[in-house]
Write a structure and sequence with these properties.
Number of helices: 1
Radius of gyration: 26 Å
Low-confidence stretches: 1-20
Shape: globular
Number of domains: 3
Strand content: 35-45%
Mean pLDDT: 92
Distance between the termini: 87 Å
Helix content: under 10%
CATH class of the largest domain: Mainly Beta
């Protein structure tokens, strides 16, 4: 009787374990590989990145619409990449390729439904007559997920950024940032310099995802082929320093605000997966040059990271002895005299006068 009971129990445990293993996962849409496509005259494809996308093609219901017409779409291929994150090592990034029909100029909504979980996700991409790919952010921080171009850089309020190598810079009439959610388009200031278009992101532009475009005086408009994410301004500020005259091997202790830039939770496609951070640098500037001392981005990789408090309000710089120093104003390498300030991402703090006599 006992053996019979144990046999039943074992069957129940095995059955439950099997059901748990076969339970469909909730997939995560990461991003389109291109958010703006060129019109196609024949059948083409669009691809996006995802995690835990069920490889059983028959379980997916995918629709494409321009608001008036629904277009046929089918899954062409599901590719597993070698890229994953430590928080989900068993869920590598996938590239999902979709067959799409001839698409003309317009805004298109892709809706993805899993018939097992009833999970539904939708996102928007554009089809435009002209695109460009070379945009340089004011900051080098990127959240790019796989090795692809163009890179996914972070963009910030109150910064100047660059559209590089535009073929018709002298024909530019306006530069626009169009919010993906509200569809409000903002005309922003720009300058032409050496064939490049330097455009400003003012403080008045709300945080969010945007399409970037250039309107020419010919009536043609060109779009950056990726959307961009604009983050809020967080200016670092120095409120106090322990003193202004130092000797070698002493510590400079600085108090203030925003010594670490904090990226808004949930705004990046990789939120909760990748700990994307900007770099903090302490800058020494004299009449000759600037010297940068990095506090890095990540505690596990940067030995100086913990010299900034968790709250981002206190910073310590350990002045090396003269034999190890490399910050000098005079040719005899005996002192530094100038200012010091903090740079977080693209933002600079106010400057404080300091002198170090080794």
């Amino acid at each position: 009787m006992k053996k019979y009971f144990f046999a039943i129990l074992a069957l129940v445990v095995i059955s439950c374990s099997k059901e748990e293993e076969e339970k469909p996962k909730i997939f995560r849409f990461l991003e389109f590989r291109k958010d703006v496509l060129l019109p196609n005259i024949n059948e083409s494809e669009i691809s996006f990145l995802a995690m835990d996308f069920d490889t059983k093609v028959e379980e997916w219901e995918i629709t494409l619409s321009n608001g008036t017409i629904n277009f046929p779409v089918s899954i062409k291929n599901i590719e597993k990449t070698a890229f994953s994150w430590n928080v989900n090592p068993n869920s590598p990034i996938q590239v999902i390729y979709l067959r799409i029909p001839k698409l003309e100029y317009g805004d298109y909504t892709l809706m993805i439904k899993n018939n097992l979980t009833n999970q539904v996700y939708s996102d928007v991409f554009l089809v435009r007559s002209k695109t460009f790919k070379n945009v340089k952010s004011s900051n080098i921080t990127t959240y790019t997920m796989i090795n692809s171009e163009p890179q996914d850089y972070l963009y910030f309020q109150n910064t100047s950024n660059t559209i590089e190598e535009d073929p018709n810079p002298n024909s530019v009439q306006q530069v626009f940032l169009e919010n993906k959610t509200t569809q409000i388009a903002y005309s922003v200031n720009y300058q032409i310099l050496n064939g490049n278009i330097n455009f400003d992101i003012p403080l008045s532009i709300p945080v969010g995802s945007y399409f970037l475009s250039i309107k020419y005086n010919t009536g043609l408009t060109s779009y950056f082929e990726k959307d961009i994410i604009i983050l809020d301004q967080q200016l670092p500020s120095i409120t106090a320093i322990n003193k202004n005259l130092f000797s070698g091997a002493e510590e400079i202790k600085i108090d203030g605000l925003n010594f670490r830039y904090k990226i808004l939770a949930g705004i990046l496609p990789v939120s909760g997966l990748s700990n994307t951070q900007t770099e903090t640098v302490l800058v020494f500037k004299d009449i000759n040059r600037e010297y940068n001392f990095s506090y890095g981005r990540y505690a596990q990789f940067d030995p100086n990271y913990n010299d900034i408090s968790n709250e981002g309000t206190k910073l310590v710089y350990k002045i090396p002895s003269i034999s190890n120093a490399n910050i000098f104003t005079d040719s005899n390498r005996t002192y530094f005299e100038g200012v010091v300030f903090v740079k977080c991402g693209p933002y600079k703090s106010n400057s404080i006068n300091v002198k170090i006599v080794y």
